[in-house]
Amino acid sequence: MTVFERPKSLADIPMHYCPGCTHGIVHRLVAEVIDELGIEGRTVGIAPVGCSVMAYDYFTCDMIEAAHGRAPAVATGVKRSDPDNLIVFTYQGDGDLASIGTAETVHAAARNENITIVFINNAIYGMTGGQMAPTSLPGQVTQTSPYGRDVNACGYPVKVCEMLSELDGPEYLERVTVNNVRNVRNAKRAIKKAFQNQIDKKGFSLIEVLSSCPTNWGMTPEKALQWIDEKMIPYYPLGVYKDRSAGIGPMYKKEAAE
Ligand SMILES: Cc1ncc(C[n+]2csc(CCOP(=O)(O)OP(=O)(O)O)c2C)c(N)n1
Ligand code: SF4
Ligand SMILES: [Mg+2]
After folding, report:
1. Which residue has the CA at smallest separation from atom 2 of ligand 1?
2. Predicted confidence (pLDDT) per residue in 22-63, tens digit
3. pLDDT greater than 80 at residue 72
4. Please, are residues 225 and 148 in contact by the beta-carbon 8 Å criterion?
5. Which residue ranges form the domains of the chain, and what is each CATH number?
6. Biggest alpha carbon distance in the chain?
7. Which residues have CB under 8 Å from 102's CB, separation 6+?
8. CA distances from 140 to 125, 157, 176, 230 (A)
9. What does pTM read for this prediction?
10. Which numbered ligand comes closest to the C-alpha of 96?
11. What is the whole-number distance in angstroms between the Cα of residue 243 and the centre of ligand 3?
């Protein structure tokens, strides 16, 4: 008989996430992957600043809290201290990874640092009350863009997978989402590959997960999942943006054209 159990890598305590928030789903997927790969005893997670700041309470592996945006730098130090043994991942929001921490993200990718990044793009600063993030969509209403994001004043959203895919360094970049069962299963496959790449010493792997924030989007949980389909995916298309081992990415297209 198959029993639906809590992954061993996920602590048996209530999470503080709002009802309908998909942070919890992604936590579960990461924990399942750690269990399935048998790496719990040698995995170190780096928690961000943001709604997932308390990820250190939810994963049973060793966890470190980084200053806002600095998780890739902390992960680099931890990984380099014991590169053959430790498996190191960061779990970061879009404000953390694509705003205050942009430099750490870009340079860790450029160095092809052998770490795994789980990037939660919910197009908003969730923890601080719903301010506009670098990833907020054009026209998106937030606390700091009450008339909708005006790209003339605030610029255009940062597309992290597309941007990093132009670098020669990173091994694997994929954008997924968790707004229905099929997409959850696909997200798990991608997260597992990102951890396996690190075990195989292939280098920097980042999985961008389009995630919901029903509270700050002002939507029901169900409507928030639909909004991902209707608004987020058209702007942030799902798919593999780079896979060096499979020869996928802009650099390979250029090589093929030459
Ligand atoms: C150095 C510093 N600057 C600003 C803040 C305030 N702050 C806390 S969380 C956050 C943004 C979090 O947004 P995101 O990373 O998208 O995570 P989410 O809550 O949406 O999951 C900010 C600006 C801080 N804690 N530290
Ligand atoms: S504020 Fe948004 S991102 Fe934060 S826990 Fe609530 S729904 Fe999730
Ligand atoms: Mg966010």
Report:
1. 68
2. 999 999 999 999 999 999 999 999 999 999 999 999 999 999
3. yes
4. no
5. 23-257 (3.40.50.970)
6. 58
7. 69, 134, 158
8. 13, 11, 21, 13
9. 0.98
10. 1
11. 25
